[in-house]
């Protein structure tokens, strides 16, 4: 069974950073990571992966066009089974409130605490097993 994590961010270096941080997990086949550079592309992938085991969506908030906060209620309606963690450089109380009110499971601030993210992924993997 293939287990996927979808990462949504318009910054091109994010994919390399995530692949570096999780290289052992990816190499061992614990999960696969898909990357989308925009909210519309992420929505398309979430729908296409309907039959796949998508265990987590990690999305940046500030992106050109559709923001992560605008995408959040749509992706939650399309894939209510998949938790979404929003990622932002601005972890203020209002942003957190909006993210959680729109269905986010959590909000992480940049720079990302990869140890905490790894724990979250491990929890999601256990639940999917």
List keywords for this structure.
about 130 residues, Rossmann fold, 6 helices
Topology:
Elements: E1 3-8, H1 13-21, H2 23-28, E2 32-36, H3 39-48, E3 53-60, H4 68-78, E4 84-88, H5 93-101, E5 106-109, H6 114-128
Parallel strand pairs: 1-2, 1-3, 3-4, 4-5
Structural description of this entry:
The chain is of the alpha/beta class and 129 residues long. The chain has a single domain, classed as Rossmann fold (3-Layer(aba) Sandwich). It is built from 6 helices and 5 strands. The chain has helices at 13-21, 23-28, 39-48, 68-78, 93-101, 114-128, and strands spanning 3-8, 32-36, 53-60, 84-88, 106-109. A 5-stranded parallel β-sheet has the order 2-1-3-4-5, sandwiched between helices. Helix 5 (93-101) links the parallel strand 4 and strand 5. Helix 3 (39-48) packs parallel to helix 4 (68-78). The termini are close together.
CATH topology (fold) name? Rossmann fold
CATH class: Alpha Beta
Secondary-structure element series? EHHEHEHEHEH
How would a textbook summarize the main sheet?
Answer: 5 strands, parallel
What is the 3D form?
A: globular
Number of helices: 6
Helix vs. strand class? alpha/beta
CATH homologous superfamily - what is it? Response regulator
Q: Whole-number radius of gyration?
A: 14 Å
Q: What's the total count of β strands?
A: 5
Pfam families: Response_reg
GO biological process, one term: phosphorelay signal transduction system
Domain Response regulatory: 4-125
Protein name: Response regulator
């Amino acid at each position: 069974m293939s287990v996927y994590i979808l990462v949504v961010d318009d910054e091109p270096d994010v994919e390399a950073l995530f692949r570096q941080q999780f290289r052992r997990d990816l190499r061992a086949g614990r999960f696969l990571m898909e990357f989308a550079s925009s909210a519309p592309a992420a929505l398309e992938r979430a729908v296409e992966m309907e039959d796949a085991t998508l265990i987590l969506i990690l999305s940046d908030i500030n992106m050109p066009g559709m923001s992560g906060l605008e995408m959040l209620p749509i992706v939650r309606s399309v894939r209510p089974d998949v938790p979404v963690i929003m990622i932002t450089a601005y972890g203020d109380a209002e942003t957190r409130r909006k993210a959680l009110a729109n269905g986010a499971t959590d909000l992480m601030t940049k720079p990302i605490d990869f140890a905490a993210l790894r724990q979250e992924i491990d929890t999601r993997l256990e639940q999917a097993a």
